[in-house]
Design goal:
It contains five helices and no strands. With 164 residues, it is mainly alpha-helical.
C-alpha cells in the first residue's frame, strides 16, 4: 500500500515549522534592530532603568567630546522620549510574532494571513526605524559639527572601523 497523502508527516512538519520560525525570527531581528530594547520576557519595560541606561550610555558616548552637561541632558531626554515612544511598537512586534507562531502552527497554512502578518511586521519595523532616526538627528542637532566628529572618532577608536 502506498501513501498518496501529500501532507508532511508529523516529524517533517515539525522540522518545517521550526525552520520557518527560525527564518522568521532571524529576519525580524535583523530588520527591527532600530529598537533599543527588544525584551519580551518577564522583565518588562522599566522607565527608570531605561533612563539610567540612556544617561550612562550618552555620558560614555560623549566623553570624547567637549559636550556640556546641558547638551548631554538634552541628548538623553531626546533618546529617552524615543524609547518611550517605541514601547508601543515593541508591543506590536511581540503581538505579530505570536500571531505568526499561531499561523504557522495552524492545521493548514494560510499564505495570505502570513503575508499580512509579515507586511504588518515590516510596517512596525519601519515606524521604529523612522522614530529612532529622528531621535538620532535631533540629538545630532544638539551637538556642533566638531562634537559629532569627535564622537565618531572616539567611537571608531573604541569599536574599530567596521566594514559593510
Amino acid at each position: 500500500m502506498t501513501n498518496t497523502d501529500t501532507k508532511p508527516s508529523g516529524t517533517r512538519r515539525k522540522t518545517l515549522t521550526t525552520m520557518m520560525m527560525a527564518l522568521l525570527a532571524g529576519s525580524l531581528a535583523a530588520t527591527a534592530g532600530g529598537a533599543a530594547y527588544a525584551r519580551s520576557d518577564s522583565q518588562a519595560f522599566d522607565p527608570a532603568k531605561v533612563q539610567q541606561r540612556v544617561e550612562k550610555r550618552v555620558d560614555r558616548a560623549l566623553s570624547g567630546t567637549d559636550a556640556t552637561a546641558a547638551q548631554k541632558k538634552q541628548v538623553s531626554d531626546i533618546l529617552q522620549a524615543a524609547f518611550k515612544d517605541m514601547k508601543s511598537l515593541h508591543d506590536k512586534r511581540v503581538e505579530n510574532r505570536k500571531a505568526m507562531e499561531a499561523a504557522m502552527q495552524a492545521p493548514t497554512i494560510d499564505q495570505a494571513k502570513i503575508e499580512a502578518i509579515r507586511a504588518e511586521q515590516m510596517k512596525v519595523a519601519d515606524e521604529a526605524s523612522k522614530r529612532f532616526t529622528k531621535a538620532l538627528t535631533d540629538a545630532g542637532n544638539v551637538l556642533s559639527a566638531s562634537q559629532r566628529q569627535a564622537f565618531f572618532k572616539a567611537w571608531n577608536e573604541r569599536h574599530g572601523k567596521r566594514h559593510g
